[in-house]
Write a structure and sequence with these properties.
With 183 residues, the chain is mainly alpha-helical. Helices cover 70% and strands 0% of the residues. It starts with 5 loop residues before the first helix and ends with a helix.
Length: 183
């Protein structure tokens, strides 16, 4: 699993695909460790917290009415951050408010000190993919990320001929182009 938009990743998580869980662990776990270590915790705490957060994430995405309103990375980190702050309050490890704690330690540096150009590009692509139709998401995902041959996609999608397939691909690329131009 190399590059994946949030919608595809959520579908893979819902399906219980191990590779999807490994991917979010690899990409998002280090951010949670940094946050916990900077806020009265250690790596063991972060590991427990991350596992609990992934379970909460799974419960949330399993709901039929679930709708992601932020990036999956932001959503998962918010779950972890809120759970950690609750634990700190419950164990009376902090006596200051959440706002004060977060002003001491900027919670958004969870993303990484400086996102790599690839991460920035990946986040942009995720945002653009989220703005196009599900049909076009599937077409673009199949052609450009899964490298599915056009003839196979034609059969899968039920298109009558190669001309229709090429036309559908063109329309979806245009949707993605418009999404990129609008933000």
């Amino acid at each position: 699993m190399n590059c994946m938009c949030d919608d595809s990743l959520i579908e893979s998580l819902r399906a219980g695909e191990r590779s999807a869980y490994e991917w979010i662990y690899k990409k998002y776990y280090p951010s949670v460790v940094r946050f916990v270590q900077r806020n009265h915790g250690n790596e063991g705490d972060a590991e427990d917290l991350f596992q609990e957060s992934v379970l909460v994430l799974y419960q949330k995405i399993s709901a039929p009415d679930f709708r992601l309103t932020a990036t999956l990375k932001t959503f998962l980190f918010a779950i972890a951050k809120n759970s950690w702050l609750k634990k700190l309050r419950d164990e009376k490890l902090v006596t200051i408010s959440d706002d004060q704690l977060l002003s001491l330690q900027d919670s958004y540096d969870f993303a990484s000190p400086e996102p790599s150009p690839e991460e920035v590009q990946h986040e942009r692509l995720n945002a653009w993919m989220a703005r196009i139709t599900g049909h076009c998401q599937r077409v673009i995902q199949s052609i450009y990320f899964s490298h599915e041959p056009m003839d196979h996609l034609m059969v899968t999608m039920g298109w009558k001929n190669r001309h229709t397939a090429v036309n559908q691909k063109y329309k979806c690329i245009q949707q993605l182009r418009r999404a990129s131009e609008n933000g």
